[in-house]
Design a protein that fits this description.
Blueprint lengths: L5 H18 L4 H7 L5 H12 L3 H8 L1
Helix pairs in contact: 1-2, 1-3
């Protein structure tokens, strides 16, 4: 397993938390605020790098 920086670990935790909130049918914009992202584009950029889709794409896939 490659080592990651403390910042990347922190960011991954935020993304995982946002994913969990989205899975619980929470509003995506609330997940943005609750997880400390600047805006939806900021969340989507990092969410897509980890999961291969945007937050809205992920939500529509699971619901």
């Amino acid at each position: 397993m490659p080592e990651i920086s403390p910042y990347q670990y922190f960011l991954n935790c935020k993304i995982e938390r946002a994913k969990s909130l989205i899975e619980k049918n929470k509003d995506i914009y609330s997940a943005v605020a609750d997880c400390g992202f600047v805006d939806l584009a900021h969340l989507n950029r990092h969410f897509k790098s980890v999961y291969g889709t945007t937050a809205f794409g992920y939500r529509s896939h699971i619901h």
